[in-house]
Structures are given as structure tokens and as C-alpha cells.
């Protein structure tokens, strides 16, 4: 039995409907800045042990909601679940980040990659979604997510973290046929994966294009946005009579918001390098906007945090269609109390923009 949503501000804002105040959630809100998360992770053994255990993934997802009056929950998982399920052997090195035992650098390897079955190789994700949805009891909506094809391809081709993107850009420019084949296969995998999350209970979806901003404008359209648009076209946008909003977020993509708004998504994430007033002009009412405080502001004084919240609210201006968030994930060294100040400030200061 699915519970009716008690707090639907986030859903309404992404669909540009009226709300009494601006909803807020934080990218990476379930994670390393919370002492209770660090304790659970130590007990679990590793990051992937947390991700692949639906009960533990549920517990991590709920932790920030017990502390803060957030307007949405986001599935605790990793963007690299799909490449891992394709058999590339994901592992994490402390201080280094994610890496794969096998890199994808030629057409033959791309052709051999399977499209993972979300009810088999990725069942731990759909099980986590249904567990979280049940435990939320309709208190707030649950956001499901995936990495974008370009972002997943970056990790798969590089084989791990990179500063200059030489392997992935080398393949993109040197063997575009293989790159398009890979991106197409990833887009197909993501469509199936996200639709399975909706089937399991996700009430909204988000696509994280972490590395889209490293591309030239032309390459961004050809190798990133094109495939995110394909995904948006392939998603189930309604379940049980409820619209499933879709948000696209390209870090460093503020200059392309107008063309991103043509993708058919409901909402666009904006990082802190773009003013929301400018972003609002560029999307011209086609989509809602999410963002966009610099996460580093959470190291500042309470007064400075409140001041920045007011500045961002004023920048977006009056009316609906704004989901408050950080411009990227919350840092692991931020004190949880500062996140509390931030969330409270948004709830309190945003009311006047919705009268």
C-alpha cells in the first residue's frame, strides 16, 4: 500500500506548480559529513557493502531526514552501478576515488558489454528503492538517479579518476564511432535502470552529468546532451496517476541551459558559477531550476550562510519553479549543524517569495 505524499513541495516545484515555500534537499545529503553515516560505513566494511545491502542503503538514505526537515530523500547508491554490472570490476581506493579493473577503449570491448538487467545484476538497487519508499511512509518523495552516459563513459574509458580526460577525449575525437556506440549502449542501460527504479517506487528522477562541463559546446551537444535527451524520451514519466519529474544536472553547464531546456526534462540543476536570475531567463519558463549555493559556504558563519540563502532566493525571484540545493555535493568535512542552519534559512526566508 503506497502512502499519499504528506510533503509534495519538491514534486510541485519541479513541475513549476505553486508551493508555500521553496523546497530544499542537498546533493550527497546521505553521506560522509554525518557521524552516524561514518559509523555505519565502518560497521559495513566498505562503501559498496553499504550500496549493495538494501537495508543499509535504506538506513543511510533516512539518516539526514531524521536530523533535518528536508523536502526530499535521495536513494543512497553510486553513479557507477551500471558499469560495475557490465562486468568492469568497480573498486574504491581510499583517497583516490573509484576505479575499474578493466577499461573500455575499443569498439570490440564496447560491443561485448551487456545491458544489465535491473531485476538481476542491479536488483540490490531496486530492492533498496522499494525498501526506502516503504519506510518513508509518504513523508517526502524519493528521488532515484543515474550518472549520465558521458559521465559513466568517462570513468569506463579512463579506468579511474582523471585530471586531463586524455583517454576519453582521445576516443571521442579519434574513434567517434566507438564512443557513440558506447554512449548509445549506456543510454539504453540507463533507461531500463531508471524505469525499474520508478517501478520500484522512485517518485522523481535525476541524471548527474558530472563531467559534461569539460566538453566544448559542440562536443557537449553531440556526446552528452544528445544521449541525456534520448534517456528523457525513454523514461516512464507517470506512475499511479502521478507525474515523475526528471532533473538533468551538468556540472559546469550553465552556459548551455537554453539547449538543455529543449531536452524535455522538467528541471535543470545549476551549479554556483551561474546566477539563478540569468538561468531563469535562459530557460524561459521551459523548466524548473535546482540550485545553487556553493557547498564551501557551509564552512562560513551562520550569518553568512543566511545572507547567501537570501541572495540566491532574491536572484531567482518571486514565483514557483525553484528547488533550493547546493551547486554540487555537500563536502565531507562540513559540520552537520551548518547544514541545519542552511535548511532552516531556506524554509524561513523563502516564504515571502511565494506570497
UniProtKB/TrEMBL annotation:
Q: Which GO terms describe its molecular function?
A: uroporphyrinogen decarboxylase activity
Q: A Gene Ontology biological process annotation?
A: protoporphyrinogen IX biosynthetic process from glutamate
Q: Which UniProt keywords apply?
A: Cytoplasm, Decarboxylase, Lyase, Porphyrin biosynthesis
Which residue intervals define the domain Uroporphyrinogen decarboxylase (URO-D) in the entry? 23-32, 143-159
Q: In which pathway does it act?
A: Porphyrin-containing compound metabolism; protoporphyrin-IX biosynthesis; coproporphyrinogen-III from 5-aminolevulinate: step 4/4
Concerning its family, UniProt says:
Belongs to the uroporphyrinogen decarboxylase family.
This molecule's function is given as:
Catalyzes the decarboxylation of four acetate groups of uroporphyrinogen-III to yield coproporphyrinogen-III.
Q: What is this protein called?
A: Uroporphyrinogen decarboxylase
Q: Provide the gene name from the record.
A: hemE
Amino acid at each position: 500500500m503506497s502512502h499519499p505524499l504528506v510533503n509534495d513541495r519538491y514534486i510541485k516545484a519541479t513541475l513549476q506548480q505553486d508551493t508555500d515555500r521553496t523546497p530544499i534537499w542537498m546533493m550527497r545529503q546521505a553521506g560522509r559529513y554525518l557521524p552516524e553515516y561514518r559509523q555505519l560505513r565502518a560497521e559495513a566494511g566498505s562503501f559498496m557493502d553499504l550500496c549493495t545491502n538494501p537495508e543499509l542503503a535504506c538506513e543511510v538514505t533516512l539518516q539526514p531526514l531524521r536530523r533535518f526537515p528536508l523536502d526530499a530523500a535521495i536513494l543512497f547508491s553510486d553513479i557507477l552501478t551500471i558499469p560495475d554490472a557490465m562486468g568492469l570490476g568497480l573498486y574504491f581506493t581510499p583517497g583516490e576515488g573509484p576505479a575499474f579493473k578493466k577499461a573500455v577503449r575499443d569498439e570490440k570491448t564496447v560491443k561485448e558489454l551487456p545491458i544489465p538487467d535491473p531485476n538481476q545484476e542491479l536488483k540490490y538497487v531496486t530492492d533498496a528503492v522499494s525498501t526506502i519508499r516503504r519506510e518513508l511512509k509518504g513523508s517526502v518523495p524519493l528521488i532515484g538517479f543515474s550518472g549520465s552516459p558521458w559521465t559513466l563513459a568517462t570513468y569506463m574509458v579512463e579506468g579511474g579518476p582523471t585530471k586531463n580526460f586524455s583517454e576519453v577525449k582521445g576516443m571521442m575525437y579519434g574513434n567517434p564511432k566507438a564512443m557513440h556506440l558506447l554512449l548509445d549502449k549506456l543510454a539504453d542501460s540507463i533507461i531500463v535502470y531508471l524505469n525499474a527504479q520508478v517501478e520500484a517506487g522512485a517518485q522523481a528522477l535525476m541524471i548527474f552529468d558530472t563531467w559534461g562541463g569539460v566538453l566544448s559546446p559542440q562536443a557537449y551537444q553531440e556526446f552528452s546532451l544528445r544521449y541525456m535527451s534520448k534517456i528523457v524520451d525513454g523514461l516512464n514519466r507517470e506512475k499511479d496517476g502521478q507525474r515523475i519529474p526528471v532533473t538533468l544536472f551538468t556540472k559546469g553547464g550553465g552556459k548551455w541551459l537554453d539547449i538543455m531546456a529543449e531536452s524535455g526534462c522538467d528541471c535543470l540543476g545549476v551549479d554556483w558559477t551561474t546566477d539563478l536570475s540569468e538561468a531563469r531567463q535562459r530557460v524561459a519558463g521551459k523548466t524548473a531550476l535546482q540550485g545553487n549555493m556553493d557547498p564551501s559556504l557551509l564552512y562560513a558563519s551562520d550569518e553568512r550562510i543566511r545572507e547567501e540563502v537570501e541572495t540566491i532566493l532574491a536572484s531567482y525571484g518571486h514565483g514557483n519553479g525553484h528547488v533550493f540545493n547546493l551547486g554540487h555535493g555537500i563536502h565531507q568535512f562540513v559540520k552537520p549543524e551548518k547544514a541545519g542552519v542552511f535548511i532552516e534559512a531556506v524554509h524561513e526566508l523563502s516564504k515571502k517569495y511565494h506570497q
